[in-house]
Fold:
Amino acid sequence: MTGPQGPRVVAVVPARGGSKGVPGKNTAPVGGVPLVARAVLAARAAGVEDVRVSTDDAGIAAAARAVGGGVIDRPADLAGDTASSESALLHALDVLAAEGAEPDVLVFLQATSPFIEPAALARAVRRVAGGEADSVFAAFETYAFLWQEGPDGASGVNHDASFRPRRQDREPHFQETGAFYVMAAPGFREAGFRFFGRIGVEPVGADRAIEIDSPDELRTARALAPLLDEPPAAVDADALVTDFDGVHTDDTAGLAADGTETVRVSRSDGMGVERLRAAGVPVLILSKERNPIVAARAAKLRVPVLQAVDDKAPALAAWLDEQGLDPARCAYVGNDVNDLAPMALVGWPIAVADAHPDVRLAARIVLRHRGGHGAVREAAELLLAAEHRREEQ
Structure:
């Protein structure tokens, strides 16, 4: 129903749990954020307030709720390999209608497209809401020569094989990305398919058109994320947990004649931790290192420390539970491969600038500063920026 504020817009992300090509695909992190959460965040950034994830999987549901998405329980008969996205969308519309929230405009997002452009999605919504089109989909311009192979050899699909016009002399075609489809909801109900009535193309960047259906495509998306994702200006987290060596230090050590180790730390990092404590933000140092210097630094900073911890993820989970903190609202700063498990546990995995390549790929944010050279202060300022925003609202 159209409300006083204009057409009701609802986004639905169908995301079943039974992917075979990439097990656990819809919760696989890209840029430190699960794919299904990226879809929810993209819709919210485009101005769609009501975003629902249709799923049969508890892990997917939890990842959606962690970033403000709603969940529609998807029946088993609509979650198999042969079930269509349209069947999940029609079921979602029935659920929304039962809630009295059936939309005028239905936004269909696919979590397997990790780089949905909020501005393009917002334009597509306006086109359908304004009556310019009934169905609008994301696509990128291509001037590619397409071919098909038959029993008599290959032949051109969109060109005459005997003639090769210059790019500037050819009309572009559009390749569907699968990222989003925006539809007039009543028309979709009637047609039962995503394309109907007046169909419009919403151009998006070809560099963001990757769809993840294989492990290779997942690896490619993770490599692209640092280049395509906008670095967050703030970290909306309730706690900061850090490794020690390589984060508070530059991962080197001095050795005195008596065998005593020394490390170099940053006074700037100390100020960052002090500012967090003053703001009431819990800070924890979690380290595998057994050297008493870790406890000494924690005492200097007046923060708790868990050290000599070989398996960090269970230790972090236990501490968060003791503190009553939501892992999705915790930040963890790491630098090496033994930080990957705790980074996967939290909503804000962060890597120092000189972190191991695998850690950088797993991070939601890669800091500008190296370990021992202001990385902790930079992370602290990102959390404080979110605190200041909340205070201003």
